[in-house]
Amino acid sequence: MRPAALALVLLAAPAARAQTPEIEAAIQAKLGASRYALKLEDPAGGFAPAAGGKPGLRATSACVRTLKYSGAKLPNADNHAAFVMACFDPKTGGFADAPGRKADVTLTSVGVMAAVELGVPKDRYRKALDYLRDNAKTFEEVRIAAAGVEAWGVKDCPFSVNPWIDTASAEMRKELPDARDGGARAAGSAAALVARLGARIGRQEHLLLTGILTSGQRPDGGWGKAGAKTSDLETTYRVMRALVLLEQRPSEPARLRAFLAACRNADGGSGVVPGEASGAGPTYYSAIVTHWLARFEK
């Protein structure tokens, strides 16, 4: 049986047990996302960011996790693990998007997450943690580096993450724009960073943050960047990541499901905004947000 067919067989059984339109729609969304991700696969190793592209580390990480959260089996896992490690430079500790290219903080964090997900022994890329420690300086760099440390295991992190927590705390003290005009994105980014690293968020801060995050949901059902009229999946992912970590449901899940559906395309993948071509990244955002919604609704 072909890998794509096998994945669909694994997903098809729950479809027979669908009891509501929402459950049926979620199952169909998972089937579509897994089909799309598998179309981007190079069986020799890696996934492309979009149809017709060449394999890249970010796309590989996104597709591996799309298949995971869609309930599909990952084919050729050893080859994909080998591709991820081919993107690692043992001299610097950095990961690049493709073998031989330049490493940076974002890609190194993505590489750590992908390697952990694929079960690569940590000793093979332990120096990546040194790279993150030495190179994550800006808030955005620290934010994504924290995701890599979370995947690695905060308790096993070989350096103190307190300076990163201080960076996030300083970000949360800044005056935020309107919740629907980028404020929820900013608050969610900082809150997720703190929560990922296991730092305590006080009751008053928790109430303030969850209020900003939930009130920032736009009429179209998603969350968006400052100045943007349309919500986008990347911002929606950031806010939902924070809500999950804060154990807070979105206030209007039905509108959120409608936004996810609006971003979904006939090929099963999703664009970052409605009407945009599908890509590995936004398809992953849609898949994991769909997964979180199901968790909240259990």
From TrEMBL:
Residues 72-114, 189-284 form the Prenyltransferase alpha-alpha toroid domain. Pfam families: Prenyltrans (PF00432). InterPro entries: PGGT1B-like, Prenyltrans, Terpenoid_cyclase/PrenylTrfase. Its cofactor is Zn(2+). It comes from the Bacteria. Residues 1-18 form the signal peptide. GO terms for molecular function: metal ion binding; protein prenyltransferase activity. The keyword Chloroplast does not apply. Keywords: Metal-binding, Prenyltransferase, Repeat, Signal, Transferase, Zinc. Belongs to the protein prenyltransferase subunit beta family. This is Geranylgeranyl transferase type II subunit beta. It comes from Urbifossiella limnaea.
